[in-house]
From TrEMBL:
The keyword Glycosyltransferase applies. Residues 172-288 form the Nicotinate/nicotinamide phosphoribosyltransferase domain. The keyword Nucleus does not apply. One of its GO terms (cellular component) is cytosol. Residues 387-449 form the Nicotinate phosphoribosyltransferase C-terminal domain. Pathway: Cofactor biosynthesis; NAD(+) biosynthesis; nicotinate D-ribonucleotide from nicotinate: step 1/1. This is Nicotinate phosphoribosyltransferase. Its EC number is 6.3.4.21. It comes from Anabaenopsis circularis NIES-21. Residues 24-151 form the Nicotinate phosphoribosyltransferase N-terminal domain. Keywords: Glycosyltransferase, Ligase, Phosphoprotein, Pyridine nucleotide biosynthesis, Transferase. Gene3D superfamilies: Aldolase class I, nicotinate phosphoribosyltransferase. Pfam families: NAPRTase (PF04095), NAPRTase_C (PF17956), NAPRTase_N (PF17767).
Length: 465
């Protein structure tokens, strides 16, 4: 029978999390590897890790990098408390670890450099959108948290950018995904990434207020049913809601969508009611929206209910009379972005992974992007020592020796960059079905270093000096 160690005061069953807990929000092997590095005396060797995706999710022609702000905030605050260290020691797992390991945790903080592409920038397979240059133990320890925030927010921002691209600039796009997100923290990140990726507002009150935004929403069927039952009719339910929220959008498909629209049309026409919008959440959205539009010609119609970019494209092609969309489940869930975080240089020695299907490129790299007429022409993946050839280097220094070197960007700035980035991509890269991702050229210098590293690795494997 497994014995559960006494972890002291650090135990709590509610699994709440605060910024102070983030140092332990990691996989065990990050800590055991750090302890091993200390034992071998190499923990302070300078290491470079790069975060990238090997391949994009199916039918994604590009990815929008997102999550950098939360990554930097995490690195700024990284530290271990006495109670956290005591809890780790109580597990018994680290019984053979050096005392220096505990001293390192007690006194340590992130002291490295961070290079990253700005949030809202399109990236492609094998292009690093973040690089960490730091003492080995630090660079190793932070892998899990960085992948968690960057992978998830990149997924949401990419979906949001695609939704905006399909729906058009005039459509109202609302993030409704909190109840379907994978955790309360995930819901906050999803709301942020969705707004930065192109959506107009979120229904998540906490996320909106923390981000300095106005939360947005309508009502649920429960209110209509409850007030209809108590006050006699759906019309009375709408009147009651408008008593406290004048002109607010109304959900009109609880019972009979067209009957509800007809009654509202009479009140709007006679001036008895002002109405800023109606929401349809079920049924044949094409037919219903067209009928509602004929009854309420000047009232915006918002549709919701498991919508995604493919469904919006279908609705638009079929002539649906819809002015906005509420996006939830399919925005905040779905095929993940499988970003990876790999060592590329240790103590000035380029290294690479050579596993079948998972090989990586060695050395610290830069993405060089070229444009023609404001449109992306090509990307070249090269070494940081290479000179741009009428190209724009994408990776920027955002943190030096543990301190930020740039002010945080506003959501408006990131959203604008996202829109500009998507607009600059080739049409075949933006399409939803069988998109063609930008082909990334591997520079001659990187190709040469890759071959040299392979040869050196092969010699080392055979014990050849």
């Amino acid at each position: 029978m497994t014995t559960i160690p006494d972890l002291g005061s650090y135990q709590h069953q509610d699994l709440t999390i605060s910024a102070a807990d983030y140092s332990l929000l990691t996989d065990l092997y990050q800590l055991t590897m750090a302890a091993c590095y200390v034992g071998e005396g190499i923990e302070q060797k300078q290491a470079s890790f790069e975060l990238f995706v090997r391949r994009s999710p199916e039918n994604f022609g590009y990815l929008i990098a997102m999550g950098l702000e939360q990554a930097l905030a995490y690195l700024e605050k990284l530290s271990f408390t006495h109670s956290q260290i005591a809890a780790l020691q109580a597990t018994g797992i680290f019984a053979h670890a050096s005392d220096r390991f505990w001293s390192l945790l007690a006194d340590g903080k992130f002291t490295g450099n961070v290079w990253a592409v700005p949030e809202g920038t399109a990236v492609f397979a094998n292009e690093p959108f973040l690089r960490i240059e730091a003492p080995l133990w630090q660079a190793q320890l932070i892998e899990t948290y960085l992948l968690n925030t960057l992978n998830y927010q990149t997924l949401i921002a990419t979906r949001a950018a695609r939704l905006r691209d399909v729906a058009g600039e005039q459509a109202k796009l609302l993030e409704f995904g909190t109840r379907r997100a994978f955790s309360p923290q995930g819901a906050l990140w999803a709301a942020r990434a969705a707004l930065a990726g192109g959506l107009d507002a979120t229904s998540n009150v906490l996320a909106a207020l923390q981000l300095g935004q106005q939360p947005s929403g309508t009502m649920a069927h429960a209110l209509v049913m409850a007030l209809s039952a108590m006050e006699g009719s759906e019309a009375e339910a709408f009147t009651a809601f408008h008593r406290y929220f004048p002109g607010a959008p109304l959900l009109i498909d609880t019972y009979d969508t067209i009957a509800a629209a007809e009654q509202l049309a009479i009140k709007v026409k006679t001036g008895e009611m002002e109405l800023s919008g109606v929401r349809l959440d079920s049924g044949d959205l094409i037919s219903l929206s067209q009928q509602v539009r004929s009854l309420l010609p000047n009232v915006p119609i918002v549709a919701s209910g498991d919508l995604d970019e493919w469904e919006i494209a279908r609705l638009k092609a079929a002539g649906a009379a819809i002015d906005g969309y509420g996006l939830g489940t399919r925005l905040v869930t779905g095929t993940p972005v499988n970003g990876v975080y790999k060592l590329v240089d240790i103590d000035g020695i380029p290294v690479m992974k050579q596993s079948s299907g998972k090989a990586t490129y060695p050395g610290r790299k830069q993405i060089f992007r070229s444009f023609v007429g404001g449109k992306v022409k090509a990307d070249r993946l090269g070494l940081i020592t290479e000179t741009p050839l009428s190209e724009t280097p994408l990776l920027q220094l955002v943190m030096k020796e543990g301190q930020r070197v740039q002010l945080p960007e506003s959501l408006a700035e990131i959203r604008q960059r996202t829109a500009a980035t998507v607009a600059s991509l080739p049409e075949e890269t933006r399409r939803l079905t069988n998109p063609v991702a930008l082909q990334v050229e591997i520079s001659a210098g990187l190709q040469k270093l890759t071959e040299e590293t392979k040869e050196l690795t092969a010699k080392n494997a055979k014990g050849v000096k």
